[in-house]
Amino acid sequence: MTDFSQADIFTDPTLIEDPYSYFEYLRRQGAAVRLPKHDVVAVLGYDETLAVLRDDDRFSAVNAITGPFPGLPFTPEGDDITPQIDAHRAQMPFGGMIATEDPPQHTKTRSLLMGVITPRRLKDNEAFMWRLADQQIDAFLGKGAFEVAKEYGEPFAGLVIADLLGIPEDDHPELARLLSFDAGAPGTLGDTRELGANPLEAVGMKLFQYLAERRAAPRADVLTDLALAKLPDGSLPPVEEVVGTATFLFAAGRDTAVRLITAALRFVAEDPQLQRRLRAERKLIPNFLEEVLRLEGAVKANFRLAKTRARVGEIEVEPGTAVMQILASANRDPKRFEAPDELRADRKNAIEHLSFGRGVHACPGARLARAEARITLERLFDRLADIRIDEAFHGPAGARRYAFEPTYMFRGLKALHLQVTAEP
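Above: the chain sequence. Below: its structure as C-alpha cells.
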C-alpha cells in the first residue's frame, strides 16, 4: 500500500495519473483535513465542499486559481481580513479575473457575461456547432485515426467560442496561438513563473481592439452586444472590464470543453459495450456526460481564502488560511454517490456533481461545454461505425499508457489517440 502520509499534492508527480487513491486516503481521515505542507486545509466531503463553495461571507475567491502560491502579499491581521484582501487584490496572481473576484464586483462582472450567454445566443451557437463538428470530422475521416485534444477538441471549442463572441474568422488562428498553455497551465507542478494579475493580457489586448471599435461604430454582431452591455444599475462599464469578461469566456470555455470531450471519448473508446449502448440509446448521452464530469471533471480542485474564522468539517480555520476544495473527491464521496468509482450512464443523481462548482462562481459556460460534448458524440456516432483506442500510442487493453496534465488543479489528458472506422 502506498504511504500517503507525507505526500505533497503540489509537487508530487506520482499523484497525477491516479489522484483518486490519495483523495480517498485523505477522505478516510475526515471530511476536511490539514495537509502536511503549505498550511492548507483540504475539503474532501461532498456536503462540506458544497458549503464552502456557497459561503461568500467567510471565504474569498481571490486565491481560487493558484491556492497557497506564491503566498499572501500581506500578513493577516484581525478577525476579518476582507479590507486587506481588497487592498492587495492587484498583487495577487490572476487577481484581475472574474474567477477570483468577490461580490459585489463579481456580481457586476458576471452580469456582463450572462448578457452574452443568453438562451437565444446559445441556440444559434448550437446550430453552428453541428456544422462545425462535420467540418472537423471531415478533416480526419479519410485517415482512419485522429488525436482528440489538439486535432479535434481545441479547434472545435475555440471556434465555438469565437462564433459565440462574433470574432472575425480570419483572426481565429492568432487567438488560438495566444491562448495556448503549452508553457504550463495554472497550477503546474513545480511552476516558478511570475504570474501577473491577468496572464491572458495578450488576448485581452486583441479583444480590447474589437470592443473599442464596436463602441465607436456598432454593428449587428455579438461583440457589439458585449461592448454596449450595461450593468444592473444602467451604467456602461469601462471597456477594460468588458475585455476581462470576454477573455475569461474565451480561455476558460475552450479548455473546459476540450477536457470534457477528451475524457468522454476515452470512456467510449475503452468500453465497446458502453459505446454500443450510447449509440442505440442517444437519450442517455446527456446523463453519460454528467457521469464523465463526476468521474473526470476538468477541475480537480480550486481554492478559497478564509476571510474570517470558520469551521470546515471538524477543522477550525483561521483568517488567511488557504482552503482547497477537492472537487474530484467530493464527486466520489460514497455518502452521496453509490459505488462512486463506477461509471453508470444511467446514474440517477449524476448531475449532482460539483465539477462546474456551485454558488456565485458556478461555471457560466457549463451549458455551452455540455452542448459541445453532446453534439460531438452525436456526430461521431452518426458518421463512424467504430471508435477505439489507438494501441500504437496508448498500449494494449490492460496496459494502457496515458499522460495527464501535470497540475494540481486541473484534470485532463495531454493527448488521446483514436482509431476509427467510417460508416459504409
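The first helix runs from residue 14 to 17.
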